[in-house]
Specification:
By secondary structure, the protein is α/β, with parallel strands linked by helices. Helix content is 19%, strand content 26%. The chain has 3 helices and 9 strands; from the N terminus they run αββαββββαβββ. Strands 1-2-5-4-3 form a 5-stranded mixed beta sheet. A two-stranded parallel sheet has the order 6-7. Strands 8-9 form a two-stranded antiparallel ribbon. A hairpin with a 4-residue loop joins strand 8 and strand 9 (173-178). The chain is elongated and about 65 Å long. The termini are far apart.
Length: 215
């Protein structure tokens, strides 16, 4: 393999780290992969807290910073969600990604007992995807409003949402109403960059039917 900008050395270091971590969490490790200069470990759902403790406390690892917990949706899979944990070791200047699979009915053990920062990350994953976390101290929505229906980052969630919000001047309050699409205003002209308008625009000669230089 040619040596380019230290990539082989980086991959060797990640391979060594992956082998070591794999030996420490052998019963929980399902897959190990190095791609684009990053090490990803896939682990069993029920073992996630034990894996995170090893990565945090082991003297060879010292991944003491939880950068993020996020979700990924694959609706066609039986376990449609990936839950992904990104960790950083300031002591060794290394990063690692840990992920697991789950669905919308089987909860993932909370990581809040290992990393306190996981509390809001897990609330966001619950709010956006509907991923459940058992043992979480306060699992409720974080970004959406009270009474919000559905989970916006699921791939089967409609782009328009289910309700629209507006200020009602008569009632002097915010009201929620079902989304309404006024189709009569959706007049598409696929030959024009000014899609949907019915008045002349500068530079859009098709709007008037008069090419440049003609009366």
């Amino acid at each position: 393999m040619p040596f380019i900008h230290g990539v082989p050395q980086m991959d060797d270091a990640l391979e060594e780290l992956g082998t070591y971590v794999g030996s420490r969490i052998a019963g929980a490790l399902l897959d190990k992969k190095i791609a684009h200069g990053e090490l990803t470990l896939t682990v069993a759902r029920g073992q996630i807290t034990n894996v995170l403790k090893v990565l945090r406390d082991d003297a060879r690892c010292r991944f003491e910073v939880l950068i993020d917990v996020c979700g990924v949706d694959y609706p066609a899979r039986e376990n449609r969600f990936d839950v992904v944990y990104h960790l950083l070791s300031p002591r060794t200047n290394q990063r690692i990604r840990v992920k697991l699979e789950t669905n919308d009915s089987e909860p993932v053990p909370t990581a809040t007992g290992v990393f306190s920062a996981a509390e809001w990350y897990e609330r966001e994953a619950y709010d956006m995807y509907g991923i459940l976390f058992s043992g979480h101290p306060d699992l409720r929505r974080l970004l959406t409003d009270y009474g919000f229906q559905g989970h916006p980052l699921r791939k089967d969630f409609p782009l328009t949402g289910y309700v629209e919000v507006r200020w009602d001047e008569e009632q002097k309050r915010v009201v929620y109403e079902p989304v309404k699409l006024n189709q009569e205003f959706r007049n598409f002209n696929f030959e024009s960059p000014w899609e949907g308008v019915d008045y002349p625009l500068p530079g859009d000669e098709k709007a008037s039917g008069n090419p440049p230089g003609r009366a």
